[in-house]
Queue: 3 jobs
Job 1
Amino acid sequence: MAVLECPSCNEILEVEPPDRIHSAFSSAKPMPKSFHGKIIQKRVRCKNKDCKKTVTIYWYAPITYFCRV
C-alpha cells in the first residue's frame, strides 16, 4: 500500500500498486529510460466530500528494481 496526498486538499489517499513489479508511483509520467516495461496509469478519486477531485497516478517498474543482486 502507498500513501499520498490529494494535491488539491491534502487529504490522505491510500492506494494499492497494480502488481509487485510496478512498485514505484508518481503524479507525473516518469522520465524515459528510468523504468522497465509499461507504465500503468490509474485514476483515484479524492474521498474528501468537499473535494472529490480525480488524481492520476503513474505506476512503473523502476530500472533499479531489476539491478538487484
Job 2
Amino acid sequence: MYKSIFNIIIVASLLSSCKDIPRDNLLDPQNPNSYQQPTVLLEAFVNTNNPYSYNLWALQALDSIAEIYDGRVVIAEYHRNTSQYTDPLADPLFELLYDKYVQNSASSVKGVPDIFINGTGNRVQGASSVSSVINRLNAVLADLVILENHYTLQPGEAKINASEISASCKIARLGNRSSENLLLKMILLQRINNQELKRVVRDLKKSTVISRLEAGEIKTINFDPVSFTEKPDEIIFSLTSSDELIVYQSIQVAL
C-alpha cells in the first residue's frame, strides 16, 4: 500500500515539475517567444497562349527563384484570359481573385504577367527579360524570408479516392498574441509539362473564416472533398486574412 502511495506521489511530483520546464523550443506553440521561418507565396497570373515572350520570361524567372530560395518560397501559377488571348487553363474563380488583388493594390492596371507576393503587399508586373524579373523579385524576397513568422502549418494526410481528394491542415499560433479573422486556402497544383506549365493551379478552396486563434492554440481545418478530372500533383496550404489580401504563411506538399 505504502509503495503504491509513494508511486502516486512521485508521478504527481514529476507532472508538477514538468510544468516548470522552460519552453525554449522556438517552434513550440506554448512558448510565448516562439516563431517560425516564413515561406513566401508567389502567385503568378499569366497567359501562356500569348505569343510574346513576357509570360515565359516570368515563368522562367520563377524557376530560378525557386532554386535560389530552395523551399523558402512556394509558387502558384494562375492562368487567365486577356482581351486579346484566351487561355484554356483559365478559370473564372482565378479571375475573381485577380480582380480582388488588383483593386486593392497601389495600381489598378491589369495585365500579364502579374506576380503577387504574399497577397497584395508586393507586386511585380510585366517582364522585359528573365533577369529583370529575378532582380525585381529578389529585391522583395530578400527582406521577407528573414522575418519572424508566428504561424506554423502542418498538413495532414491527403486522401485520394477515385476522382476526389480530401485533405486537412493544422494551424498553430506561435508567440504571445492571438489572431482574428483568418482563412485557410487549399490550392491544387498540376505539373502539365516540364517547360512552362510546372505549377498550374487547377482549383482553389477556402475554409470558413477562423474568427479567433489564441496564442499557443492549434486548430485542425478539414476541407470537404474536392472533385478533379486530372489528379493534382501538389497542394499549397496558405493562411491568409479573411479578405485574402494578406498571406501570413504557406506550405507545399506533394501528393
Job 3
Amino acid sequence: MIKLGRIIEQLGTESQFYDLGRDFSNFIRTIDGTSEQVKQKFEQDIGSKLNGKRIRARSSRGYKQYVKDFEFDVSKITLDDYYDNYVVVAHDNTTPKPKEYFLKPGYKIQVLGPASGQPSNEKGKNPGQSEHPTSPVINPDKAQSQPMTPAPAGATPVEQPVKEETNDHYDAYPIETIVEDIKPWLPYLLLKPETPLRDFVKELGWKKNNVVLFNVVLPINLLKYEISVPFMNQVFSQLNKNPNKDGIIVVKEMTLNESKDTWNIKIKKVFTNERK
C-alpha cells in the first residue's frame, strides 16, 4: 500500500487538473475583502465601548449553549462566523486559559466600570436571580410603564424559573478530538511536520447524529504544497481507504483569506464507526 505522504507528493506535482479553487478564490476575494473591512470596523466600534471594561451581559460559554448572565472583564471583541451565522464574542483574559462569551445582541449590556482583573463566576447568574434572593426582581425596562402591585401581607416573593436556551440540534465537538482527526494527514502538508497541530484549530466543531463539521485554518507560508479543493479531496479520498478509519471526511468549504494569507477549510466527517 502506497503511503499517504508519497501520494501527497505526487498530487503536489501533477498538472493535469484544472484548479477551479484558484479561479473561484479570485472571484470571492473582492467580496471577502469588503466583508473583512466591514467586520473589522464593527469590531472596533463595539470594542471601543466594551474593551477594558467589566460588564454583566446575557451570554453563553459556547455557540448555541446555555444562556445566562455573566459578569466578566472584556479584553477584546470579535465578530466570528459560525456556519454562516455571525456572532459577537467577548474575550476574557483574566484566567490562564482565556474564556469566550457569546453575547446575546437582543439584551442590553451593563457596563460596571473598568476591568477589575478578577475572573468571572464560571457558573454565571440565573437571569431571573438578583443579588438578594429574598427581594422581588424588577425589570427596569418595564418599571416605568407597568404599575407595581403590592404583595399580600405575609407573602413571600417567589422567583419564577427562567427557561434557558438549549442546543436542540448540535453537540460540541472538542478541539482535542479535532486535533486527533487532522493528525493522520495535516503533517504531510506542512513545511515543518512537527508544528503543533493545535495551532491550526481555532474553535470547537459541531456534531449532529453521526455527522461532524469543523474548521482548520492553514497559513499559506507554513504549507509545503499549493492546495485546492480538488487537491484536498484527493488527499482525503486516499485517507478514506484506510481500513482502520472511523469516518469519511470531505471538504465542505474552502476559502482563501487574502488579508491574513490563510486557507479556511471547513471539513465534514461522517462517522462509519461511532466513537465510544
